[in-house]
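Lab notes, practical 5.
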Amino acid sequence: MILCIVVDNERTWFGPFAERLVRRLESFGSSYLLRSAEEIPDPSEVTFFLSCERKIAPTVLARSRHNLVVHASDLPEGKGMSPMTWQVLEGKNTVPVTLFEAVETIDAGTIYLKDLLRFQGNELITEMQAVLGTKVIEMCERFMSEYPNVIKMGAAQTGSGSSYRRRTLEDSRLDPEKTIAEQFNLLRVVDNERYPAFFEWKGRKFVLKITASADVQGSGTGSGVAA
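Output from the prediction step:
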């Protein structure tokens, strides 16, 4: 059985988790980490599209019996970009995760598995990504351990749901008139290098970078990087 993990985003934080997932799936078949969907062998049994930016052509999807995506929202709610980040900004500490079939319409395929991410509310983005990356591995392994019977449990999405837009540099803007507490969730999700927090004051732009001290109780021990 040929299993593929496709990660086409060269700057993704998910890279180390993808490498770990490839090794974990070796007990189920021949597993491969690919940097482009065009590299998927035909035929393949299951392909996981994880941290992918490019839309996949129907002809490429047809190479695999099943094509799977893991998305950090309660689909059909929260389709689109950066769903975990948007939900943290909404003040949520429990974030649903959905494993579903990739189809031509984005984030619209049959749902096979759902799970939850649980945060304390003081984690920075790298820590939240570590929780998400671990959960993605768990869900992909669970799918394969229950395959092919898990396919029979699939449920079609109903309703139009909601969607999140792509985040931009402007979304890291702080309001100098508001308190740190009021804007802490925004500070949690910024990337210190690629899209750092910033504010403008008296005609100048100021950039803020956030890290968590190792002596602070709780899970906050890292610095914010890619979202």
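Observations recorded by the TA: The first helix runs from residue 15 to 25. The longest strand covers residues 64-71.
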